[in-house]
Amino acid sequence: MKRYSVFAVAREGARHHTGWERAWRSPEPKKSYDVIIVGAGGHGLATAYYLGKNFGITNVAVIEKGWLGGGNTGRNTTIIRSNYLQDSSAAIYEKARDLYETLSQDLNYNVMFSPRGLIMLAQTHHEVRGYQRTAHANALQGVKTEFISREKVKELVPIINIDGPRYPVLGGLWQRRGGTARHDAVAWGYARACSDMGMDIIQKCEVTGVRRIAGRVVGVETTKGSIDCNKLGIVVAGHSGVLAEQAGFRLPIESAALQALVSEPIKPCMDVVVMANTVHGYMSQSDKGEMVIGGGTDSFNNYTQRGSFHHIEETVRALVETFPMVSRLKMLRQWGGIVDMTGDRSPIISKTPLENCFINCGWGTGGFKAIPGSGWAMAELMAKGYSPLAAEFSVDRFKEGRFIDESVAAGVAH
Ligand SMILES: Cc1cc2nc3c(=O)[nH]c(=O)nc-3n(C[C@H](O)[C@H](O)[C@H](O)COP(=O)(O)OP(=O)(O)OC[C@H]3O[C@@H](n4cnc5c(N)ncnc54)[C@H](O)[C@@H]3O)c2cc1C
């Protein structure tokens, strides 16, 4: 595969862009693979990439029922941060954030990582105490965050109203190297790198069954026929329960739609990401100028990928007090993705009761930021049977009561 570079862009410019290759191959499935990953979202593709890069395992197929990156990976609001409370969370999210720093170079694909800084607003005294606690925990974990004053918040976000009548801004948890990346590019970059290593990314192919013999996985049934494998990774976010049922086990997961919306493009007005957990809304400005606004999760379980009017109203109403300019914005688009949520709001990266079958799910409303770290850990678990980053996230924790409670860190949909 040809490398992308400034010289390649100049060369192709000179010949009217007629020489670009397809970014990845679209092969028909082979009869058998060493490893099959179900789900070509960011986590599935990153798992395949690190299997190849870190462990030399390249006889891999990534099977996707739709188009790659068409699930939550292509539907999220792209916030990247690692300011979680628990040690095991901070470790994996910070590993991911750190990998994002050089991901464009590693993949030779511009993922537009933009560490513009991120503030979580403290708008109640309870939040002030909570975020000060997180800042102390982060200091011990080696994650760089600080609790900043309301004046500093205003300096960083001039459009904010810090004197709101109900919820004045009292300060904020600031992560200077948090930010955003281009979601599609993350999926496309990993896909291109996987294809370049000889892996097969098979789109429009749904896994409809998991084949097992004597408690061990031996392959999958798909809409393109039966495919054998030695190891299986299930990385299907909102459909995790469906695939687990096919594999013969149950998961402590609920699926629901999470919504987001973007405004019309406007001139640059906010160059950091702001999350307002008390009023439940968050916002950043895309490179195109749109205000990217995160809404809430549907309050009932469902598998839809649609938006709904009451979410626009609720989300925008919540934000207007803190960002009065939002009242004058026209909203352009709205959508939903199916998020997979665990009771403690932490992910599952785990072996399963079915031998050689592994699962990565439960990232809920906040897994985009984790993609590189999650893929790294899942690949290690699948290749070696153990990953220090994944150890705490085993599904057994729900049996043993070892919860990793991130319900505060994950309090707002993000
Ligand atoms: C509106 C919204 C906003 C969000 N905002 C943020 C944010 O700001 N920051 C953040 O960190 N996270 C955010 N998230 C969460 C984040 O998007 C997800 O946690 C993450 O993208 C999950 O990636 P994934 O690869 O696990 O899943 P997905 O990208 O959903 O990929 C799973 C894939 O599996 C495929 N699949 C399912 N069943 C089958 C089958 N039977 N056979 C074959 N393929 C199958 C699906 O088609 C899908 O492509 C948001 C999510 C939403 C919906």
TrEMBL record:
Cofactor annotation: FAD; FMN
The protein, known as: Sarcosine oxidase subunit beta
Keyword terms: Cytoplasm, FAD, Flavoprotein, FMN, Nucleotide-binding, Oxidoreductase
Pfam families: DAO
The enzyme's E.C. designation: 1.5.3.24
Origin superkingdom: Bacteria
Subcellular location, record wording: Cytoplasm
Any one GO biological process: tetrahydrofolate metabolic process
GO cellular component, one term: cytoplasm
Reaction(s) the record says it catalyses: sarcosine + O2 + H2O = formaldehyde + glycine + H2O2; sarcosine + (6S)-5,6,7,8-tetrahydrofolate + O2 = (6R)-5,10-methylene-5,6,7,8-tetrahydrofolate + glycine + H2O2
UniProt KW Transport keyword: no
Positions of the Rhodanese domain: 35-79
PANTHER family (UniProt xref): FAD-DEPENDENT OXIDOREDUCTASE DOMAIN-CONTAINING PROTEIN 1, SARCOSINE DEHYDROGENASE-RELATED
MF GO annotations: nucleotide binding; sarcosine oxidase activity
SUPFAM superfamilies cross-referenced by the UniProt entry: FAD/NAD(P)-binding domain
Entry similarity comment: Belongs to the SoxB family.
